[in-house]
Structure formats: structure tokens, C-alpha cells
Amino acid sequence: MNPTPISVIETMQQLGRAARTASRQVALASTLVKQKALRESAKSMSASAKTILAANQVDLVAAESAGLSAAMVDRLTLDPKRLSAIQDSLLAIAELPDPINQVIATIDRPNGLQIQRVRTPLGVIGVIFESRPNVTADAGALCLMAGNAVILRGGSDAFHTSAAIHQCLAQGLKSAGLPETVIQLVPTIDRGAVGQMLAGLDGNLDVVVPRGGKGLVARVQSESRVPVFAHLEGICHVYVHASADLQMAIQIVVNAKMRRTGICGAAETLLIDSSVVDTHLAPIVSALQAAGCEVRGDETVCQTVAGCLEATEVDWQTEYLAPILSIKVVQGIEAAIGHIDKYSSHHTEAIVAQDVAVAEKFLNQIDSAILLHNASTQFADGGEFGMGAEIGIATGKMHARGPVGVEQLTSFNYRVRGTGQIRAV
Questions:
Q1: Which end of the chain has fewer CB atoms < 10 Å from its terminal CB, N or C?
Q2: Which CATH entry fits the domain spanning 236-379: 3.40.50.720, 3.20.20.70, 1.20.210.10, 3.40.309.10?
Q3: 3-state secondary structure at position 141
Q4: pLDDT tens digit sequence for 21-48
Q5: Beta-carbon neighbour count of residue 373 at 10 Å?
Q6: Domain 6-229+404-416 is in which class?
Q7: Taking the model in full, what pTM does it have?
Q8: Same fold, 6-229+404-416 and 236-379
Q9: If pLDDT is split at 50, 70 and 90, which confidence band does 229 have?
Q10: Furthest-apart CA pair in the chain: how many Å?
Q11: Contact criterion met (CB below 8 Å) for 180 and 173
């Protein structure tokens, strides 16, 4: 392994120190100031649209030359519609309730002490991501609204696009009178910068959020010396129960798989109840195939519907991020829960069922961050949850779980007010 150049170490340490200083200032910023920074950032992005899209084209040409997968290229690609969506996201985040200094709970003690649990910023957040240039804006905006400073380390494949977007964020901060160091972008593609972030930047980094492929997330979870908000994989399931309406099941399954196959909320395995194989299986598979999806099924699926490949054990464990779906026939709700419990990455699961009692059993017994009844897994997104955007999806059980938005980027402290009380010996 090549040693990290001294220049990279010095650069990252400077970013860490600047972020810590900026975090103290942004923690005290008013809601109006933070809102102005985000609105001015969106305005700057609108004015710089041609520049951002041109930078994106540079990255796309390089991505094609490097042979990036179709899923990665899709994540990297910006067009006027997607760029407009990023601007809308900044404006939506600006309208969110400011979580800082929000009183979560109040406890009045018999001795007269009043104890309040109050939301506070986390401090300095490091975000390490691949391909998705929108993360530059979403992560920067969410961290800002939650009163945090952030250091963004984008992938080399989106380097020029991220830099162009970051310039707009910096302009927004400047317009609002906040230090531009509240949102910093690592100015190098040297991999040593990631190692420095995982080491904590001399104690200046409080949380790391990885957003990218399994290799990146696994490295961050393994090597990080600071807390991590992340999910390793998105092996998401849809279970079509015996009571499922056929047309609803077709629409949900096709959307869950095919709307965007390269996102973490895309369905990877479909479970169909054995009692509706004769009525539901063929129409659902036909709709998937018509949409361009390759189907890999168990023995029953392959015998029932033509054009399906035989699924192997590996398929139940695979996050395809491609137009491929594995299908298994299960004997009732208990078998569906058992399969999900064995193979799920605890990201997102959905049930299609008219039987409300069965749906509630599914929601109560599946241990995943996001559970849906009669809705597509593609709704596993902070923007769809009313969060404006998300910095990622977390599947751990400590602190943040599910979409990580503004509230999840805060901590809290206890503020105790008295009238001279002392504790007895």
C-alpha cells in the first residue's frame, strides 16, 4: 500500500480544523440565515445550470471511457430535469422546521428541577459518496439546516460535477453571511483523503456517512474510528400475499423493480404466495418481462412461466442494481417472513395485500428500517418521506434509522433549571 502524500494529510487536517471552527458558528445561526443560504444556493444553481451540466458531461465522458456500469452512469447523469429537482430539494429543505433548540421532552421533578431534552447539532459530519452529484447539494443542505459543518468527499467519477455544485453552495453561504467552510468539498481524488476522514481528522470529525457501493460502505464500516450512519446493501423484497389485488400487485412490483433499477430501494426479490400462483404469477412476470426485466425464478416459477432463468442460492443474496429480479413461491406469510429474515439487508420490504391483519403482521414482525403496505419500495427516499432530501439510508439500530434527514443529523443534551437545589448527602 502506498503511503498517503504529506500534502493530502495536511489538506485534510486543514479541512478538519476549518470545519470545527465553522461548526461552532453555524450551530448558532438563526433559522432565517440558514434558509437564506439554501435559497441563495438554489438561485446560484439556476444561474449556473449550463456550467454544471457542462461539468457533468466531462464526468460522463470519463465514466464511459472507464467502463462504469449502467447503474453507476445513471446515478452520475444530470439533465435539466434532474438539476431542477436538486434546486427544488434545496428549497424544500429550507422550508423544513429547524430542529436546533427544539425541546423534545420536558420533565418536572418533585424537587422543583425542570429538565428539558433539547436537540443540538452533531458538529462536523463527513460524507463519502460515489457517482451521485446530487449528494453534494442534498448532504450539504441537510447538514447546514441541522446546524452542522460538513466535509464532502465525492468520487472521482463525479469530481467536476460536484465541484460545480459546491461552488453554488459556497455562494449561498457567502450571501447569507456564513463561512464558506460550513460546507467543504475535498479538493483531491487521492484515496488517501478517505483514510484521513476515517481516522477522524485529529478528532475534528464526529460522524461519517458513506453513500455508494458495497465496497465503499464495507471499508467505511470496517475502518472508521468515528460513528457511521450507513447501509451495506439494499436487498429489498416485495411479498404478494394471497389477498393481493392483481392489478395493484402488477403496478407495484414493476415500479419497485424497474422505475430506477440502480437505487438502493429497488426491489431485488419478489415473493409470491403459493395460493395465487395460478392467477398472479404469469401476469406479473409478463409485465416485468415487457418492461425489460430478466426474471430468475425457483422451480415453480420456471415451470409456470416461459423465459425465466433458474435462480440459485446466490440470487437470494444479490443486490442486482440492474433490471434483474429473483422470484420465489412461498407457502404463506410465515414462509415469506422467514425468507426475508434470512436474506434481507434490513433496508426496505413491502407487502401487497388486501388483508389488513396479515399486513399488520408483516409490519410488526419484519426487522427492516422501512416497511410498506400496498406501496412500491421505490418510496424508500427521504424526499418522499417529507424530509426534503436525505443524506442516505441507515439500517443500524443506534441513533438514526431509515432515511437520514435533518432531525437524524442532530443529537441532544439535557438542560436542567433549578432554584438553588442541592442534592442530599
A1: C
A2: 3.40.309.10
A3: helix
A4: 999 999 999 999 999 999 999 999 999 9
A5: 14
A6: alpha beta
A7: 0.82
A8: no
A9: confident
A10: 80
A11: yes
Asked if residues 268 and 318 have their Cβ atoms less than 8 Å apart, the reply is yes
Q: Are 144 and 26 in contact (CB under 8 A)?
A: yes
Residue type at 255?
N
pLDDT tens digit sequence for 95-115:
999 999 999 999 999 999 999
Surface-to-core class of residue 50, CB atoms within 10 Å of its CB (0-12 exposed, 13-18 middle, 19+ buried): exposed
Exposure letters 171-204 (e unless 16+ CB within 10 A, then b): bbbeebebbbbbbbbbeeebebbbbbbbbbbeeb
Task: Collect all residues with Cβ–Cβ distance below 8 Å to 131 and sequence separation of at least 6.
Answer: 68, 72, 75, 76, 155, 157, 158, 212
Strand order in the sheet with 207-211: 183-185, 149-153, 124-129, 207-211
Closest among 70, 75, 378, 72 to 254, alpha carbons compared = 378
**Which residue shows C-alpha cell 450507513?**
230
Q: Which three cell numbers stand for residue 377?
A: 419500495
Sheet bearing 410-417, strands edge to edge: 103-108, 114-121, 410-417
Instruction: Outline where DSSP puts E strands in 257-312.
Output: 267-273, 294-297, 309-310
Dist CA 180 CA 161 (whole Å) = 18
What cell numbers appear for 88 in the block? Answer: 427544488
